[in-house]
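Researcher: Please predict.
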Amino acid sequence: MVLQFLSNAIIVSSMYALVAIGLTLIYSVGGVFNLAHGVNVALGAWLSWYLVANLGFNIWVGVAVAIAVPALFSLAIYLGLIRHIQDRPIIVMTVTLLIEIIWEYFIRTTVGTQARTVPQIVPGNVNFAGVHLLSNLVLAFVVSWVIIVAVFLFIDRTKFGKAIVATSMSEKGPALVGIKRGRVYAGTWLIAGLLAGIAGLFFGSYRGADWLVGQTALLIAFPIVVLGGIGSIRGSVLAAYIIGFIEIGVITYYDPRMSGVLPFIILIGILLVRPEGLLGRGQEV
């Protein structure tokens, strides 16, 4: 029982981290919350279901589209809307929240409220030391950590990654060394959408795709970002595991119905006890 709990908590936490990283990246660079981040996650889940289950495409076609479309959608939101208002955080939050609401209304009226089963990329089960896990969840864990490590390396060792760090630290400083803020912002929104699409593939296969799947992902990611220290990717990864372990522990040993409200309870506690988060507000990307 304990091994099953630990395995589930580790895997689920890795997915939560993947959902939260994109939200953290955008805030670290632009100082705004993208409340339409849940739409990108939902697109990853819904597109893979629609292409594979409805249109009969190969699963890998569904995977490719479910990753590419959220990335392009996120970039389109930035170029078409956000870049014109990015210096007004409240307006950005309002606009992105409205995009999230419009998406939910669209899905509810066109597809309905019934949850759909997102196809598994890798079917079957894995049994190890008496622990039974879906092969797709094991893949989710592996892919999540490959991406997490890749993000760290990208930020620490590439020119664009260093531009992200510089832009997150100062508004005027990067311009003095030739860094174009607009390109950094656009690239960050593109990357965040890409990560959200991948997260949606696995998050949807874990929880199913319904009209609120994006909102559910966002409501999990938001407390993670706050707990980790707003703007800190490393903090978000750590916070994802804390919240993931608490949630799976409550579901396993107490009451599964508490899972929906648990992130809000944790968020209230964070804001009261340590509002700057585990690693401090904006101390690092």
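Model: The chain has a mean pLDDT of 87.
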